[in-house]
Amino acid sequence: MTDSMRLKNPLPAARALAAGSAVILRHYEDKDRAGLARALIALCRPRHIAVLVAGDARLALATNADGLHLPEAMLARRHQKLRPSMLLSVAAHCPRALARAAKADADFALLSPVFASKSHPGGSAIGVLRFAAWASRTPLPVYALGGINDQNIRRLGGSGAVGWAAIDGLSKNLDATR
């Protein structure tokens, strides 16, 4: 996931991703968000890395992104897939949001914060046990997000997470195959 405050230019980080990964473009304040989306798509698509635009269906369509990511607050409105081929991901922070994401026919959810996170300073983490319980109650594939780093990623084993997402918690020596 991109974050303009922590990583001004997400292109180098996207270059480091493996095929089958995805980038969720947040960078909400970027003056040329469309240009950044197009640059990410041009870089990622040939490498089989999906690009989802967060919170802006029009931009996702205009740039021919691979999908749309909805922050949890946007789930209050009814959403349909923009195109059958487009991915729809949803941010969730509680079981009710996971249920709404499933009802919205999302392809997957990002459940957070699993661990203490810079994105939610002072907020309480849900922890691995709650993550596992909540993820087991939804038909959606659920990715872990929030405070994930190379010291705690192993704790996700057996949690039901189909994968993990991060903003800045991954060090250069993180081995994604662990």
Reported CATH architecture of the largest domain = Alpha-Beta Barrel
| Residue share in helix | 10-25%
- Please state the overall shape, judged from the principal axes of the Cα atoms: globular
Major sheet: size, sense and barrel closure?
7 strands, parallel
**Terminal Cα separation, in Å?**
20 Å
Q: Please, what is the oligomeric state? A: single chain
In CATH, the homologous superfamily of the largest domain goes by the name Aldolase class I
Number of domains: 2
Structural class: alpha/beta
The proportion of strand residues reads 15-25%
CATH class of the largest domain: Alpha Beta
Q: Please state how the strands of the largest beta sheet are arranged side by side.
A: 1-2-3-4-5-6-7
Average pLDDT works out at 89
Number of helices: 5
Could you give the count of β-strands? 7
Query: Which parts are unreliable, with pLDDT below 50 for 5 consecutive residues or more?
Result: 170-178
